[in-house]
């Protein structure tokens, strides 16, 4: 009784759709939903359709090209790393040495120093 098992060679590969990787697909989807809601609101308000269609299509094209540019520039995890690095401080300033002197008061031997 031998069984034939198919190996899935796509394991641990990022999701890709037309050149967009990972979270950029979600960014594009959320942007398109926002554009759809914007279209509906402006149409209900009474904006002329001849002005509305070019506006929304232009915003949609801008959204697509900007998300594609971000995907190509940063890759799958690069945007998160870029934002995390931007959030780090350039330096730390301490006004007292108490932070460092209290580190050796038994915290390394399993005791809590709260």
Task: Give the tags.
flat; 114 residues; mainly alpha; 54% helix
Précis, in short:
With 114 residues, the protein is mainly alpha-helical.
Q: What does the model show?
A:
This protein has one domain. It has four helices and two strands. Helix 1 packs antiparallel against helix 2 (49-74). It has a two-stranded antiparallel ribbon with strand order 1-2. The radius of gyration is 26 Å and the shape is flat. Strand 1 (16-17) and strand 2 (20-21) form a beta hairpin. Helix content is 54%, strand content 4%. The mean pLDDT is 82. The protein starts with 15 loop residues before the first strand and ends in a 13-residue tail after the last helix. The chain is mostly helical.
Please report the total strand number as a whole number: 2
Distance between the termini: 62 Å
Most strands sheet: 2 strands, antiparallel
Q: Average the pLDDT over all residues and give the rounded result.
A: 82
Rg, Å, rounded: 26 Å
The secondary-structure class comes to mainly alpha
User: Can you write the helix and strand succession as a string?
Assistant: EEHHHH
* Proportion of strand residues: under 5%
Oligomer type:
single chain
| Shape by Cα distribution | flat
**What's the structural domain tally?**
1
Roughly how much helix do the residues carry, as a percent range? 40-55%
